[in-house]
């Protein structure tokens, strides 16, 4: 790349980037009002997951490669290009130009549009046909061409129906996924002036074929994107299912490719790797209908490749974020994102939607455009597990959140709140006062507001769908001191182990029954459980909010409180994720602290990990007790970031002798998602609803899970919905089976 | 290109996967049978023949008689045909794909605009995996990859309306793959 890094001006001409780009809040509200989005996307996500997983299994049968093999190879190839883009771009350019193509490198969206508009004028082109190109959406090419008096017609069916309906794409691969058939039939009826039956989709497709066929034959220029640019041979790779990409690139006399520099791949072998993983990840097909390789203009034709920077160079030098440039635009991250299912792509992004959009939008369209959608992410980590180029999306989203929080005018409020939260004394005082004040409202484990308040709009929005937990009158740390010794498990299997027990802030003050039960189980097994009094919060809430200063403060005090023991155990795997995945990076500026975080990492376990690992209890040790059916919700971050797999089910099977009832989508997030339930409560409520439907279908009276946040969220949700299910933390379930307790 | 004959297993895998992609696979002895298939598929209407197909089988245009649309016509003329006959350069068992090598825009139009397309492939050009592209497409000794080549896998399709799979959008709604020899 010979151009200088360019970032689009903050908030510059958003109207130029497609019709109807409204502020985030409005897009979010509109999405919630559209009943088609949630139902359509739920159906889509569930069937995609199934067929995608089937494809990945047969991939191995057919090619001998696993998903992990291929994503490792493609990630490496992409990394090589990101590390030395100029070299690979130069090679691609030299090869294709030797065969008569022309490559232009442009810095900004405006430059790209100007080049293409100028070319159209010079060649006397008044009609342009377009294949699907997200880059052309990114730069607002259609609007720029219209401004220059050139008509641009989308030819991908989804893109075309959005164009005639003055709508915007909501998915990288299936741009019109938010439209239902009756909406398309109405649109066709209105635009084409004859009636269409919503249930006759083939008739609508045929109508589009006829309409667009005429455009293909008359257009003077075709614009497509590119799925890859092969440097070794100077080849453009383009995949489509409809065949419009081949027509667009072949019939008009001038073919223009708009794409980003990150699409370059070093070798043809890398392109084959991409073919094997792209369609399987995108549409869950083994291969798309057409994979086209263009290495020169057709005889008598012209070929121009417009390579656009538009913030990419800046991204490539941003530590931790450069990996986002590996993206091959398959959309898999959106297809597993529980928040995407609730609001769809319009709320998410500008052009690039779903989890990847939360990262790239900041670079292509500025931090202002990226700010609103940040609250949508529940940090469940599902996106990273299906990404075919191993982009660490959850970490990147938090990093963009940090950048956004740092410059946000309201950021000081978050920082102040987190500063107060970071103080153990203030937190203790605050929860004591709140506990005292809310005493009259305490009903068992819940806080119940008087109807006059509960029925207000605000209370309904934030609390109506999830009954809030009660604040404990006495925190777990005090109760643990008073607790009597539990009945012993035969043989005291953990005798002699010194465990530093981490209560977790929520458990300590809001759900003391959880840490107390965990302590009981560990003590019953003979462990020497210590509860360091200086412990407080691991720092996750601050980290989540993008406030690294306060996260660091809390991380350090947690390390200082817990280090120096044999094992560190907590009933809260969310805190373990923070300690294992975030602490070292967070403390990278302070080598002494970073080392202490590293040493601690080797000893930290969440309760389940401990009980199936070094603290393993004898098989059948807690087999006596209730024989009621149990279903298991797998804590999403445990599945996605700790490789937990089925260990909770195994623990219940081996130690408690319980065969759990299968729960559909057991590893899909419950919607707790930390700050999401405050910033975007409808997302939390929607995801919770999806979970509760699956729980009801499982039919078990007991739901066991292993993260306190999920327990409180699911418990409150089940209470508000009147669902007949008892939600228990695994510690509570195990403790209820201690000898003499059942 | 001289290569060992593909194993039966490779041919069978190719046929199975092409079928899964909704291509109709035939095994014919010669090009006369191809012409007969085209005439059968299009009792009326023109039959467009691409340059590489005509080059491989000079008999083809004769067999089709007055119904033939000879190579090199304007796109509009090709678009008016009922069937297109094109040459497949390679078959890939891994995906059930046929590699079309189409240098000229007029030849591409035959495989893109005809509602029914017949892709004719030599049996000994069917290979097991996509890796064959490295040698036979990208690293050809005669000056690098062709201007324009496509892996074509079944008829054109869309799922853009409610993810409902619909066959036949901008490209053909029927694809016949003929294994020759």
Protein model, in words:
- The complex is a heterodimer of chains A (742) and B (181).
- With 742 residues, chain A is of the alpha/beta class.
- Chain A has a domain at 476-735.
- Chain A is built from 37 helices and 19 strands.
- A 6-stranded parallel β-sheet of chain A has the order 1-10-7-4-2-3, sandwiched between helices. Chain A has a 4-stranded mixed β-sheet with strand order 8-5-6-9.
- In chain A, strand 5 (228-230) and strand 6 (235-240) form a beta hairpin.
- The longest helix of chain A has 29 residues, at 35-63.
- The model of chain A is unreliable at 1-20 (pLDDT under 50).
- Chain B is an alpha/beta fold and 181 residues long.
- In chain B, 31% of the residues lie in helices and 27% in strands.
- Chain B has a 6-stranded parallel β-sheet with strand order 1-12-7-4-2-3, sandwiched between helices.
- In chain B, strand 5 and strand 6 form a beta hairpin.
- The radius of gyration of chain B is 16 Å and the shape is globular.
- Chain B starts with 7 loop residues before the first helix and ends with a strand.
- Chains A and B meet through helix 2, helix 8, helix 10, helix 11 and helix 12 of A and helix 5, helix 6, helix 7, strand 9 and strand 10 of B.
- Strand 9 of chain A pairs antiparallel with strand 9 (148-152) of chain B.
Features:
heterodimer, A: 742 residues, 6-stranded parallel β-sheet, 52% helix, disordered N terminus, B: 181 residues, alpha/beta, globular
Shape of chain B: globular
What is the overall number of helices of chain A?
37
Proportion of strand residues of chain B: 25-35%
Amino- and carboxy-terminal Cα gap of chain A: 70 Å
By CATH reckoning, the class of chain B would read Alpha Beta
Order of helices and strands of chain B: HEHEHHEHEEEHEEHEEEE
The oligomerization state is heterodimer
